[in-house]
Amino acid sequence: MLRVVQSQANDTTADPAAPLSIRGLTVSYGQKPAVFSVDFTARAGRMTAIVGPNGAGKSTLLKAVLGIETAVAGQVRVFGADLSMQRHRVAYVPQRASVDWDFPTRVIDVVLGGLYRELGLLGRVRKHHMDYARDCLSRVGMEEFEGRQIGQLSGGQQQRVFLARALAQNADLYLLDEPFAGVDAATERAIVAVLKGLKAEGRTVIVVHHDLSTLRDYFDDVWLISTRRVAEGPVKEVFTEANLRATYGGRLAPAQIDMLSRQDG
Amino acid sequence: MSGFEFVALSLPPMVIGVLAAIACALPGNFLVLRRQALIGDAISHVVLPGIVVAFLLTGMVSTWPMMIGAGGAAIVSVLLIEAIRRLARIEAGAAMGVVFTAMFAGGVLLLEQTDTSSVHLDVEHALYGNLESLIWLDAAGWGSLVDPVALAGLPPELLRMAVVACVIVAFLLVFWRGLKISTFDEGFARSVGVPVRLIGGLLVVLSALAAVAAFDAVGSIIVIAMFICPPAAARLMTDRLEIQVAWSVGFATLSAVAGYVLAGYGPLWIGFENAVSAAGMIATVSGLVLAVAAIFGPHRKGAQLPR
Amino acid sequence: MLVDALFLQMGYNATLVTLGAGLLGFAAGISGTFLFLRNRALLSDAISHATLPGVALAFLLMVALGGDGRSLPGLLAGSAVSALLGLLCVNALVRHTRLNEDAAIGAVLSVFFGFGVVLLTVIQTLPQGRQAGLESFLLGSTAAMLWADALIIAGGGAAVVVLALLFRRPFLLVAFDAAYARARGLPVARLDLLMMGLVMAITVVGLKIVGLILVVALLIVPPVTARLWTDVAARVVWLSGIFGASAAYVGAAISATAPDLPTGPIIVLVSFVVFVVSLLLAPSRGVLAAWLRYRRFQKRIHIRQGLLALAQGHPIYERLTLRLLVAAGWARGDGVATDDGMGYAARALRDEARWTALRTDNRFEAAAAMYDGVRDIDTVLTSDQIAEIDRRIAETPA
Q1: Which of A66, B24, B224, C28 has the fewest CB atoms found within 10 Å of its own CB?
Q2: C337 to chain A: which residues are within 8 Å by CB?
């Protein structure tokens, strides 16, 4: 007979202080689980892509990790502790389409939002805060736009502003929801450069990603998800024909799978 | 007009009108941006049942029980709307329509069932208010403004409205940053630990407070104009929230003063003898302000995205 | 008493009011449905409040022309004109500025009402104004309903019903997906305007019975109630009409039984009671049914996850999972699987493997789309297909 409780100690995949570890997470909209009983563990100082077909629960997974969606079941640990203890170490970049860009505010105000935890409710914005926010803007190449109303930006510029806000959070774990959706090529390059810079500083980056053709170039690890976890691990090992087929089923043409999995990094 | 008449008869209602307009316009900025403008509509319709129930429970027409009754009704209505929206899975507007009509109907029914003819409590008063009646009998002229004895005779509504306005200003100052972030990007706000629910809840509670305090003076339907028109007009003037709020306070003040003056003196200028409803005129002026902003406001159009 | 009222035995006026209210309720329920399904329910609130200045101006105009100002057709015509103006203002604000519809609705509603109040105070100062009784338009007044008034209500209501039923298909198309309707070549703007026109007609006709503040209840509550009972749009239309008619009929009958039961509020409260009962008990969208469904679903998720954990030797993290497994007799309190439990766990794991295989196979794409983690595989495949999957699993090296 099986001693279930014991096996926790033998569970080699669970690094107790991993930047993010997810156990048995189920999130459901109504009766249909968007994410069912998934386990994932992020490795520190690496860039990880969350990959799967439309409706596979990628964004939902991120939102549940952050407590924006409520889980039916499961457990999430951030650097070995509950999220509420670690919020200052986590930065989140939502999908660009999730907010009202007609909101009356300027680029620099959005970036200052990243200092919310530091400023608190009443703290005054001082010169070093402004300088810091400007610095974050220049890291994404947007320093000239600080006074611009956000509705007047292009899609790529809006995405860069969101990234600058996350940079301002100065976090150890970055969670980005489709940062490359609908942005121009220059923005995509700029974002990738910034994310690689974060990685070089030893921070952990997790990105919901759509474009399989850039997966090898951008990322170290990949989580394949299709409501359930399909696989996780280094891109080189996990990004195989069998796993892709298991993730996408009939939704990816065989020729496509063949091409992607043979592609050299 | 003499200083005495002005200080005694016009100044208090005008100040109350201005305070009421500002107290409603301030939270109104966020209600409009959060697409919850009609919460003001729902809240103000349920003020009537609230005061009727308070009257039935206490048996008297006095300020505090009625304020509490109206505030309680406002909160009940907001909770009911939220519950029905989720449980029946319908849009917020329809849920509001269900809740406030039912509560309003209940209030009218209770009013008809009880003998309130002896007291000053009637539907029309609740709907239109009676700003003109809030006069300062102890005033003898401008000098009364520094006379403590005369000041003690100020209409109590004035002090009440001033306190409510201060509470609302304090709330905005304390929660400004959290309100701004959670209104713009709720998901991000949650991720950094902004108490999104608390702030949203407080916003609604304070809107209810403003509506309840103002209804006595301007009536329950006209407060909707104060919630929505000045912030909506202000939104069309600027693309910065801080400046928008300042514009909305300016528009609220303008509407209240101009509305009161036009109602009191306008008819005399064109040869009528009697003044018209000040509250109604304030709403009318605020509508005209919005119309002008909608036609000429520098930021009346949404951004045309260069995608 | 109430039985007499329900069978129209309460005298001429009560009969008139009860029949008129029933017809009005039917017409309002039907035309309100389209507005509700178009997610614009509260637009009716703007329309109804915007009638007040029209009523007052019509009165002033009729007095100026030498009449007594109280002619119902005249007042209703005035209310229709100002309601239309209010509607156009809402449209203009939404179309030409960055304001959202809810702000536009609130602004128009309150400003028009405020201006109406100004005009009412003007009327009160006129010698003819004392008996004008325009306040009755706020909350409705059925006490002095005349045969001619009833005819107007009946005629207006019948016209609305005919038009609404005639246009119900295009209305529903627009309500469901306006962009698609436009692509199909439907005149969406004009259909919207007609939809609003019908709502306006209901508001105007309903002023006499329920008043301008509560008439929106007739337009909103029945469709919301009907929606709880069915997912088929065409049925929502009819059900809403029936709910609206019965609530109005019963409400008017109740109000006829005593003098201090005002008709409008009673009708609204009866509709609300019907709504609450439906919200609790409706079979598929009702609260009770949904709660039971969720509990069952949550249980299935936890049991499934628990069984998979048992089968793979993973720890069980959650107390609810363990409690459910223990209750089923599949695990002991300390998280150790029973023999029974091991059997079910193995079966769950096997199903899981079958699903994995199935989802990598193009031929089963339709079945794979049904996957949600808790569905039993034999609900989507025949036993032959399962056997085939099992063969495939056996062939693949682990």
Answers
A1: A66
A2: 1-2, 4
